[in-house]
Write a structure and sequence with these properties.
36% of the residues lie in helices and 9% in strands. By secondary structure, the protein is of the alpha/beta class.
Length: 223
Amino acid sequence: MNETTIESFGILKSLACHERLGRFVDSRFSIPHTYRGTGSIQLFILGQDPTVKNEESRASITQVLNLNKHGSLYNYLSRICTGLGLDLDKSIYATNYLKNFFIVPPTQIKEISIFKEFAPYWLPLLREELAEFTHAPIITLGQPLLSAIVRGGASPLVREYWGYTDNWKSGKTGAFWYLEPGKNILGRTVFPFPHQPAVGKRFYADQFRGYVAFMKQETSISA
């Protein structure tokens, strides 16, 4: 068990016993292990949290983003890595912003702001993880996560970074961009990506290859 896992377990215990927040925590399951490639880490992938709607499926989630299983999410991230000239099995580190399971996916919890309330418990650990890979750009997965980390008037919409315009169906797209360090709470360069199911939608499907190429051009990633 690595240090991150040990620290995560302690935070989970505190949250599960919390007088107000504990009722939103599904503490039946352990924190999924982070994913660390076998080589030099060139890319940091940040997911939202491990919770899936199907409660019975949660027990099978033992690693962040299910990267120990070659499913649809693994294939999606592998496509990104291939476009960047990286090997997913060797070159990435993956973790979650909120590391515990919730009773339902966070976007379905309306009583409190899950990201606002739980971030103070998990952000210090996330920053420790980030500090080891100061050179690595960050990919975030999904709009709720992007919305949780933006500041300074930055757009919380993934599509805005992918060149969205009202006339995109006619081929009139805007410039690609990334989330600058001064405009997010992580203080790092962030490239927002949609959740895996959304990338099949026409806009993201059309823009995918171009955005990955843009990311490669704007970073110092090397295979």
